[in-house]
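Thread title: Can someone regenerate the structure for this chain?

I was given the following input by a collaborator and told the matching structure tokens would be attached. They weren't. Posting the sequence so someone can regenerate them.
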Amino acid sequence: MSVTSYATPTPTATPKPRAKAKPLSRAPNETTERARQTTMLSPRFYTTDVKSMNRLSIDTIRDEWDALMAEFEEDANQGHFHQGEDWSFDPESLPEGLRKEFLDFLVSSLTAEFSGCVLYAELHKKGFNPDMQKLFRYMARDEARHAGFINECLKEFGLDVDMGFLVKTKEYTHFSPKFILYATYLSEKIGYARYIRIFRHLEAHPEHRFHPIFEKFERWCNDEFRHGEALALLMRANPKTLRGLNLFWIRFFQLAVFATMYVRDHSRPEFHEALGLDPEEYGMEVFRIVQEVSEQVFPVLLDIEQPAFLEGLRELRRLSEEIAETEARGLRGKLKALPLKLRAGATFAKLYFLPTKKNALPDDMRVAPAW
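Best answer:
Regenerated them for you:
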């Protein structure tokens, strides 16, 4: 779980480190340092107003809530995240370019999963609402398993991420509770959509399954889906989060999540080629799944099928690549990149103001992971 905004300032989200920790006795390894960096496209760590979050009520959806809590309690994925006897992988089997991009995928995914664990654990630990405490304990449990499992995969390459170091040193972004709900809902649902599309594709084309972690994705992404269901119930039970000016923020977060994924995925061409996926086609498939699922909770949806939407994402990608190349030239390059960043911001704004679709919320709030 994690989401970053792209090309435009994030609402009430000034990055700020936690209180200064005691000096650490060791420097982070290179993989941990990569996870610790905060960029436009890297997963972030979040914090929020815990007291306000705990004031959310689920009284109006108690039956649906209790049924979902029973699913969390059942813990169907207990024991799923381990390398069994049939696990087989040779790190030397990957060509250098694919190895580099796959490791980037693993580190980014671990950081995103651990971001959720840190946020949910804080909400559980500092919470006073029994319903919220129970939910976030379950969600932190799941995300900790995901992050830990990815770290075990990194160790096959002789690498690992020091997650304790991340907690102490990575910058935290403060979001208000409603922004946490929008961002984490979309993050969990897009995580589901990404993993299930990869899993289904590799079911049909097993020759592209170059690492055994992909075999775990079906049950794994059901955790992500369940997390999103909980957040959807919270928003439906607190309808003020879905009204008025909040509709503009809902549009913003949808676009930020989609744009970030589109640009980031195109930075891993060898990874997607090895999987047998075209990143643009794959991205649009993921967006369609997220849009279909989001009908359960969002009164306004992006119209992703209009040609101008994809054209805008392509322009953001081109600008992102040009910005990265320009900034790599040092201080002078960073100055020359400023007009490019302004163009990226203008492109994002143009996408934001494209026509959207109104959505009448269904009476049945739950959605089954049927993709």
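Residues 208 and 276 are 6 Å apart (CA to CA).
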